[in-house]
Amino acid sequence: MAGSVVDIGKVPELRKRLLFMLGMLAVYRLGIFITIPFVDRNNMGQLVNDGGLLGMFNMFTGGALERASIFALGIMPYISASIIISLLTVVIPTLAQLKKEGESGRKKIDQYTRYGTVLLCSVQALFMAQQLQQYGQAGSGTAEIVTHPGLGFTLMTVLTLTAGSVLLMWIGEQITERGIGNGISLIIFAGIVAEMPTGIGQLFASSPTSLSLILMLILCIGTVAAVCYFETAHRKIPIQYTKRTQGRQEYKRPASFLPLKINISGVIPPIFASALLMLPQQLASWIQTDWMAGFAAALQYNDWRYNVVYVALIVFFTFFYTAVQFDPVEVSDNLKKQGGFIPGIRPGKKTAEYIDYVVTRITCAGAVYLSAVCVTPVLMQSYLNIPFALTNIFAGTGLLIVVGVALDTVQQIQAHLVSRNYQGLTGPTGPRVKGRTSGRRK
Predict the structure, then answer these.
(1) Could you tell me the pTM of the whole model?
(2) Beta-bridge partners for 341
């Protein structure tokens, strides 16, 4: 392992990418500690640590919310804008056409996503500024958070929070382009990892029983094992190639496999589902009406209706993101151009239908796996009496994101090493981060 780390330093491009990624994440973590002017961060932290929706949102912001940071909105507005643009791409022909135009179309869609991010940030920041000023007023039952409320504070907070989220969006895009891994996922990853030591301290401060600690440890290990298994598992479809003639000699390419990941969508569905559920809950908590209060009560994280909607969104986004990322027709056409075919399947339309059939079946397994991991914190909270925020970090969505993003980043680093004739991160004789070899047809 030590030799493999040394090999990373021997690749100048990879070394620069890693240093750039770490530098950008350091900028993000420094920004966490810059507080919005005229906000009492101690009272804000006490409010957030009471649990509930704010506690879960604080996990995704890496502790920025409890510190009343300029990054308090986190990267969620960008994710919400991405969801909206992705959905609109399916139903609006103009956006669908842009998507087919290649790099130029992708840049245009990214530009629309940025505009949507600024709009969502402005709206969320406005509601947050108004809500912060309500704390500490007569009859609110909470400590005062804003020391100098008024129109000036509202405008300054909207500008500050919007600028902070836009900066996070830029950092994420720069990491994706000039660093290693997916920048947006790495920002969430860094925030969750940074909160883990605090979570461990809170866990032992709550004086849990020995049985609860043992069960939580087992669940944590089981969650890590499940994530590693499903994120590296593949369904391999055998591919054969027709003979090619060169002069008077015939050449036959060796048979290969088409690897299909069990979970093509990765950790995106839980992130999308969480972001989509947080947005209406925030609006419900800021708009003080009876019907909105009832709506907020129905979507509390410990309510069965919240979990049903959460699972439904995870399943939907698993299939939706898989459909966006993987096109069976395109794969079938590429195989046909290369002279490849699936034994027993006619090239062309039949091959595309077969690949789509296989992808649908394995995506079902991936959706079940993601749903099971993400609802585990609710069961742990109910039966082990452990705070939801802690269980979500060590055995739920938080741990899923941490392990999934870590595996993806290691695979990208290993790809850079292998492309330059270096061994992977686990050495020449050790195991590699790769898919499983099961080739049975489903």
Answers:
(1) 0.78
(2) 240
